[in-house]
Task: inverse folding
């Protein structure tokens, strides 16, 4: 067997059985091996940002890495923005990046580039295989790196001759190490802060926002009266009626400071000290109010369920019923113009149970997603690295990971443009995604930021760079171009019809909401 | 004035007056300065690959750098593939990349990344400004780097506080240094090789393929009988009837070896020793036949017109009429099915004089573009780094640089998908581009490469990764989505109607050629 086949069989040994791909000539022996060996599902993206973003969404829902297949330095370059988002989300994946045959690199052919240099800024682990006989062992190390809790970006660079030359067999992959337990000292420090008598809050992050960990946090809140917060962005959060009540810190610095202003004991469980998304003249970077102590109980890599259970015990909260969100999904739909309140009510009522929500609606989203805490229980996935163009790709990967669940992607029209090619992959794989595009015809968030900077009305150049009109994007036509059914809504009534239609279709559906 | 304004005024001092942009919050003070200061034309791309590819196309036609404006590490990441192509084309540009305020970086906010690390593999020059008072001088250095012959990728990273803090005035920019003359020793060596009596050829590259330099080469060929070749890809080549006859080396290794097989003296003027695009088992990387001497007269950075004029004098060719392509644009159009011969004849006849041709048609293009040497005189631009997704972006920039000329972009359906967002910029700026998409519904080049590797019929996974059907892309709908008029052609007659229509429209037009 050649090196490529030994790698495919090694990936399968490590339970990596989905490959999001955009290959080229230098990957052809790997393509051939994937074609010969049974067991890996290969899914094509027409652009590499779709590929890496899909692997991120897949990891968040499947809890295990997918592989990606990328073509040399430029192909990896096209995937970098969503690798950045995935790295910030602490998602695991194994990127297989083709390289020229080792003896060919020095000739500086057109596609020659410093692939390790491109990989390093957005990877946790990078290795170039030196020989066909190394690939299996290198691949095993890549999978082991990717599966290191909570997840890592592993990039394995595969010179073409290491893929086509004769190799040994596949390698065994060590099972993932269990997450590290949090020690008593940290638990006690956290518990002490909460019972200090001062205004206390827990900032939850990572896996603390899901399952039993979240339940334990809800019990602690019920028992002690402390508040639960989470960061503005979270890789995957269980939300909705019956889930523990957790308030999300706002994006805007002043609003975040206001929400935290009377907290005097801030306890971190899976989260970092909160900082502002961007810096602004005269505003702080760190969002902790003056006089507030910060106690770190556990980082995102630790066993957060164990940590929160132990804290609940230390605080006598084991028997308490969690403080949870009340159901708010039986209210009436509003009618008329598209308003934040109307959107909040509509999605609260219509979001199906167990939906996976992809949130990249930016300005439009901020106006209503906070109002959806009382919707039917669902998972909520945020863009973690702030690089827009994540949503369509992440929705693709999430739908592959959880084919039995409905994926609802809330998208800004600006954001969705970076990876709109994902629509084609959704159509080809018949992925069950309803994508709602909020078409406000602008980088609306930037229009607000410019007003903060300049004060005056935008002139010709600012309008040129911040608006998406002249011409308006026709999202229904774009969806048709990719074979995805679509409709348009300009009122809340039309949106309700369209959203119900999207939910009824067992495949992709796109709705352009004219704002 | 703040740092951002001092930079804008410095760019103008260096004749940088076009900015292809996709900005974010950290660039807002730069956006504001571009809005206040008159003189820079700002052009939005909906994806950063459009932005950097447009700057490449612009440089190739305008001969001076544009600026780009990109949002932090991920925004730069999205632009890397076309920076790679631009670097290999030796195009000059000044990338202005926003960064967090310097004091904010250590807080590791979501968009924090190693921007210099992302920039380095695809840049010739990288600098992060340290203070507002440095920006003007840093900007001047960036423009000077970008204008270094034949052109360099300069990436200037601008922390937000260096943009918003108070600075001094703008800086002066040193004029570009003239290209270095080629010394007599190199000229004599080249001339000696050509008159050696052995079978001689000149391999031309860079600026040797244009204007007076190309004419001198044509005179040398006429006088001495030596042949003229160029590499497979060229940044900008003057072709068509009445231009010196230059044969392009084929992509396929065996065909390139065959074309060069009887050459015994190969003289390089602006070109490198020819190498194969990819390596293949058992095939050579270097395409020079055994027993052939290689003489380098000048690299791409040198004054190639001076070099070829001096060689012509050394060879007594000053008075010779150049050996040129015969006109072949008055032949009859063929009818019926879309065939390589039919395409060659059609474009030979219909290509307008002085057109700028963007060639990213890959498999389809190879079949007919070689037959277009007798078309009306035109410029021909190749993708230089091999990273597909260059064409729509480069066409955008070329059309901005040369508004009085018609741009014809030949595109593969696979290639055009990576940067199809360029269609919107073409519509907004009413750019005079006729884009011809050869829709063969596959990465056809890879289907061929796989056959070389595997021999057998592609299976499920190979088909999944190499075909673009299920569903077919509807390019007419995609164009409509971006506000671009479009039509479809399934026969040569329909294509003639569509192509004439595209030429008649004073703005973008897209043709889907169903193969």
Result:
């Amino acid at each position: 067997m050649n090196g490529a086949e030994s790698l495919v069989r090694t990936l399968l040994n490590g339970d990596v059985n989905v490959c999001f791909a955009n290959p080229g000539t230098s990957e052809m022996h790997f393509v051939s091996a994937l074609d010969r060996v049974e067991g890996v599902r290969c899914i094509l993206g027409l652009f590499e940002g779709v590929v890496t973003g899909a692997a991120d969404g897949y990891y968040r829902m499947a809890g295990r890495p997918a592989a990606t297949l990328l073509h040399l330095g430029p192909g990896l370059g096209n995937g970098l923005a969503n690798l950045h988002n995935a790295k910030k989300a602490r998602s695991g994946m194994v990127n297989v990046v083709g390289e020229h045959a080792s003896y060919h690199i020095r000739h500086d052919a057109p596609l020659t580039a410093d692939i390790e240099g491109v990989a390093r800024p957005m990877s946790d682990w990078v290795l170039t295989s030196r020989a066909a006989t190394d690939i299996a062992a290198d691949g095993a190390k890549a999978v082991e790196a990717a599966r290191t809790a909570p997840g890592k970006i592993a990039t394995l660079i595969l010179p073409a001759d290491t893929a086509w030359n004769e190799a040994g067999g596949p390698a065994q992959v060590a099972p993932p190490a269990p997450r590290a337990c949090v020690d008593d000292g940290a638990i006690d420090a956290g518990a002490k802060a909460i019972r200090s008598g001062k205004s206390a809050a827990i900032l939850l992050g990572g896996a603390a926002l899901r399952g039993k960990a979240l339940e334990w946090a809800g019990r602690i809140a019920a028992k002690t009266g402390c508040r639960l917060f989470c960061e503005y962005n979270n890789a995957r959060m269980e939300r909705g009626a019956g889930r523990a009540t957790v308030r999300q810190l706002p994006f805007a610095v002043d609003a975040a400071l206001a929400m935290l202003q009377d907290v005097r004991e801030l306890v971190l469980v899976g989260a970092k000290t909160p900082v502002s998304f961007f810096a602004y003249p005269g505003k702080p970077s760190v969002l902790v109010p003056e006089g507030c102590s910060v106690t770190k109980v556990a980082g995102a890599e630790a066993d957060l369920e164990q940590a929160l259970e132990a804290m609940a015990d230390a605080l006598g909260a084991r028997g308490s019923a969690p403080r949870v969100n009340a159901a708010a999904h039986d209210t009436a739909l509003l009618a008329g113009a598209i308003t934040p309140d109307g959107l909040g009510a509509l999605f609260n009522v219509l979001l199906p149970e167990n939906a996976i929500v992809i949130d990249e609606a930016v300005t439009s989203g901020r106006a209503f997603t906070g109002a959806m805490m009382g919707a039917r229980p669902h998972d909520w996935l945020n863009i973690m690295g702030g690089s827009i163009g994540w949503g369509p790709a992440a929705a693709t990967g999430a739908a592959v990971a959880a084919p039995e669940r409905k994926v609802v992607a809330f998208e800004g029209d600006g954001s969705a443009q970076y990876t709109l090619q994902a629509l084609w992959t959704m159509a080809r794989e018949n992925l069950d995604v309803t994508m709602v595009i909020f078409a406000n015809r602008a980088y609306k968030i930037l229009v607000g930021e410019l007003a903060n900077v300049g004060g005056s009305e935008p002139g010709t150049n600012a309008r040129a760079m911040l608006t998406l009109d002249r011409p308006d994007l026709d999202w229904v036509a774009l969806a048709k171009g990719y074979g995805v059914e679509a409709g348009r809504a300009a009122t809340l009534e039309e949106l309700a019809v369209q959203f119900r239609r999207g939910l009824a279709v067992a495949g992709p559906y796109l709705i352009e909401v004219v704002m």
